[in-house]
Each structure stands twice: as C-alpha cells, then as structure tokens.
Amino acid sequence: MALIEEMELQGNKWFRYRSYIPLIFLIVGLGVHAYNVSFKSEWRCCLSILEEYPYYKNVFEIVCLAVSLLGLAIRIYTVGYTPANTSGRNTKAGQVADELNTTGIYSTVRNPLYLGNFLMWLGIAMLTANFWFIVSFCFLYWIYYERIIFAEEQFLRQKFGDVYLNWTHVTPPFFPKFSHYKKPVYPFSWKKVLKKEKNGLAALFIVFAIFYATEKVINNEPIQYNYITIGCIVTCVLYLVLKIFKKYTKVLDTEGR
Fold first, then answer.
1. Is 257 inside any structural domain?
2. For residue 255, is it within any domain?
3. pLDDT at 207
C-alpha cells in the first residue's frame, strides 16, 4: 500500500475515535502527576520548584486553566458560526460536509476545532509541570491529528475540488493567519453552542478537579472549595440542565444550524 493511502486509511480510522484516543493522554498525564506528587525527586521538574512557592503554583494552575479555556473559546466561536453538518463530530461512518466553511475563523485557519482541542489538552498537560511530558504530548498530538487532517483534506478535495484547493492556498492548516479574515456568513448561534459544546466546559473542570483531588489525597490534605471545585459543581449542573433540555424539548434547536 502506498504511503498516501496508508496515511488516509489511518486518518479515517482515527477520525472515528478522535474523541476517545486523547483520553490515553489524560490517563498517562494523571499518572505522571501522581508520580510527581508522590516522589520527591528531580524528575518532577517544574513541580518541585512550584511547590516551594505556593503563590506561583496557584498562578501556574490558573494559567493552565486559561490555556484550556482559550481552546474551548475557539471551539465555541467556531461552532457558533457554522451551519449544520459541518465542523461537528460527524458520524462513526465517516466524514460529513454539506458545504465548505471558508469565512469567519475558517478564513484564518483550516482546522480551528483541532486548534481548540490542542489548547484544551495542552492546558491539562501543563498541569503535570513536567517539561518532557508536555513536549511528548505536543509531538504525539501532531502525529495523531496530522493523519486525521490528511484524511479530511482528501475527502474535502474530492468533494469540493478547486474551490477547496484555492482556499488551502491562502489559509494555513493550524496556525491562524488573521490578515485574510472574512466576516462569517451565518449569525452566531448560542443555541447551537449550548447544544453541541455543553460537555466541553464540564469535562474541563472535571479533569482539573481530578488533578487537584489526586494531589490532595496523595499529600493527605483536605479537599477545599476553590475555583476548581466550585467550577466543577456549577458546570456539571449546567451540563445536566442542558442535557435535559436537549432530550425533552426543542428549545436548543435552530433550523439549519
């Protein structure tokens, strides 16, 4: 099998499970974090320094959360301006694209959702305060999503032809180029955001709460109410409310979105 076909095959396979494979990063990262907290060694890298200065450790955790929230904000901005059957989780059967998004954030970068995903997971990886784990995460994320993007681009190239190719010539795949920004065609839809991205905020605070609780349990310290635990409770309640609205009402439905 030619390499181009192998890359596309791998990308299509990983595309179906792209919401689950990153959980491996989470499990490994949590293990690294637990090890760092448990053993007083130089391998703990930045964490050993941060623990000597509690104030800077708190600031560092806020920075980690800010990076992840920035990623979520990019996802919210992207999803809020896009029509139905584009820029979504699509189906287990494969790719779906009723039209090509080339305005709004898609006029600055071709894969804004994956950029958002990267920042969300990067903030979590940073919680380990381990330089080598963060570098390893970035490298593996690049290899993983490179194949998914490759498969998606093969699909879009076949479906939209020269229109897609002309767009790729002026729009970078991952790092935004704001000089070519075009106003979105569709108005922003908070209903679509609440319907499609309701789990992102809750999941983010749950993960941060797990890291926080793990550190407290290992150090035999009480778990306190702070911005992480309170945020976890609030976002989980919000998720349940929106889940009920989505299942039993049509309040969050928007035609064509």
1. no
2. no
3. 96
